[in-house]
Fold:
Amino acid sequence: MKNLALEKGTAVLVTDEAERLYFTGFHSTFGYLVLSDRPVFFTDARYFAAAKARITGAEVRLSSELAAVGEELAAQRIARLGLDETVTSVSLYRSVEALGLPLFDASAALADAMAVKSAEEISLIEASCRITQDSLYAALGTVREGIAERELAAEIEYQMKKRGATKTSFDLIVAFGENAAVPHHETGDRKLGKNECVLTDIGCVYRGYCSDMTRTVFYGEPTEEFSSAYEAVLGSALAAERNIRPGMTGVRADAFARDYLAGRGLAAYFTHSLGHGVGVNIHEAPYLSPRRENILRDNMVFSIEPGVYLDGKFGIRIEDTVCLAGGKVRRLFTDDKKLMILK
Structure:
């Protein structure tokens, strides 16, 4: 089990499902995890036996009541209690507040701890990436004129679960033609016609860890405008991969891709940030953005996903999940990102 370095008399109460999984290595939809010098995990009868068998480094107790948490905090002489205020509901906050301890926001400390991955975590994310990649290319074999976006999305999800994924990392995005110009298009009933792009933004969860991958392929014969834009997006992704290093800010990392597209007159069509951390959450620290000064460090895992979106025409995004390892970027996918043309 993982823990936080905390001052004496300070504890953090973890109530979020993904954060509990991160610290305990055990998945449950309910539980209160007290991080302190003497960590304790409280859960109900649905999970108690399994939690006792699987969690090491923390005492596991059978209780679903916050009052039991309060008694433990008193026994440990806790004087200050932290919560992740970014994920705590108002109702739960008020219930914890009633325990009578001064509360503080522990979200930054939790995010910072979760941002740097262990070798085991990177291995699990890499396995998730492998499932995602293999599933995409298996599903692309079903692409044909008249297939609907949601039909291709369903095929990708089926292939993921067939290969061991527990679920998708998010609602899969499949966008055909002009729909691909909407970065977060809602997959629908749009059918594929000849000479149209196919954008897939996909990811799965494997043993609690996420992957994130976007590929844009073309069904038929691409125009020169599309091919040129694709090469520019690919070039911007490769520029970021080559140049991002530990010690850089998220702002500097984002600029490698953005500046490359600016040199080709396309920066105005790159309308979102370059990337975000990937772990037990599909979006977590660090963030690679013109507005984020967070510092990148070795063993962080994040996405690199530049894009160009031309309203009413097409959109192109190329996204990899990568990690910083040994002072440079290492891709966790192994495919060739050159434009794939489907016939």
Summary: Residues 230 and 316 are 6 Å apart (CA to CA). The mean pLDDT is 97.
